[in-house]
Amino acid sequence: MNLADLTTFRVGGPAPHLMTVRSRSELVDCCSRHRLQPDRPDRSVPDVLFVGGGSNLLIADEGFTGPACVIRSTGIDERPAGTGQRLLTVEAGENWDAFVASTLRRGLTGLEALSGIPGSVGATPIQNVGAYGAEVAESIDSVLAFDRITGEQLRFGAQDLGFGYRTSMFKRTAAEHGAVRFVVLAVTFRLPEATMSAPVRYSQLARALGVEIGARVSACEVREAVLALRASKGMVLDDADHDTWSAGSFFTNPILPADAVLPEDAPRYPVTDPLTGAQDPAVVKTSAAWLIDHAGFAKGFGIGDRRATLSTKHTLALTNRGDASTADLLELARRIRDGVEGIFGIRLEPEPNLVGCRL
């Protein structure tokens, strides 16, 4: 099977040693068979590639020669968690958006602003998935993970996971070892029993809903508004729309020293702790999309034969126009990264995981 069939970019070469796990026990067995050596002597030998929804992967055209594990474990366990709250333990392979929709049917709120994000539940704490003023870290109670070094199953509380903007302890340890150490088995969410949404924090969403920042409206209304906004940007998967043949936002919003020199009209956003809401006065976040726009890269920008272009709806997404290769997407990403750095002195960092390739 080509890994292109398992990713939203729809690129990536063959995986001759691919397996699919459909339960937590099968995932544990897979992890147990493929333990991680903390000091791998030969980093050129590929480790295991874990694939969930494939929405955050850019895989080399040559494919992946090591073992590849597709996580399709499913199941949701619900139980009370004190007055007005419920705990939902969700297996890693559950589809994220389907799970979000199910929370509203259960009369629970807190995840509605994260509607429409492609991928699996198990991937969300790794990247601390966020959108429209919400981050998944705010609703996570704990995560059960397999430690591929010790062979233990460990439960981490939210405070143990070092959540930040599009990062977590899971992501940092993977970077440290050059391979995944902790494989998410299940995620437990703590959600309030309510029909009204969490406070609306994002100005574009507030405008779409016709309310002020901080207002609460029907959680179902928030979900519908978020889905409409995402669709208008090509951020809801649609086989017929090549703007959605992407990994969503390709570059993260840069976090800079608070005294960084930015153009006067460049956006500046506070950086806050996703669990406490405390602002970090030492840093500021700016908009990657603004930098790309103002560096001269318009919607639909492409190079060469334009097999890969920026989305025609949203300059932060790199897209496969139907027959692009990973090499095409990387060439486009380099052009944009280098162009932004040449003008603003800010180096954009990719959000997707690059497998067998480099930017």
Task: Walk me through what this model shows.
- This protein has 359 residues and is α+β, with helices and mostly antiparallel strands.
- It folds into three domains: 3-71, Uridine Diphospho-n-acetylenolpyruvylglucosamine Reductase, domain 2; 76-192, Uridine Diphospho-n-acetylenolpyruvylglucosamine Reductase, domain 3; 242-355, UDP-N-acetylenolpyruvoylglucosamine reductase, C-terminal domain (Uridine Diphospho-n-acetylenolpyruvylglucosamine Reductase, domain 1, Alpha-Beta Complex), CATH 3.90.78.
- The chain has helices at 24-33, 96-105, 124-127, 169-177, 203-209, 219-232, 288-294, 326-344; strands spanning 17-21, 49-51, 57-59, 67-71, 76-80, 85-91, 130-131, 134-135, 140-147, 153-157, 182-192, 246-249, 255-257, 269-272, 279-285, 308-310, 317-320, 353-355.
- The protein has a five-stranded antiparallel beta sheet.
- The model has no long low-confidence stretch (mean pLDDT 95).
- Belongs to the MurB family.
- It is found in: Cytoplasm.
- Keywords: Cell cycle, Cell division, Cell shape, Cell wall biogenesis/degradation, Cytoplasm, FAD, Flavoprotein, NADP, Oxidoreductase, Peptidoglycan synthesis.
- Residues 11-194 form the FAD-binding PCMH-type domain.
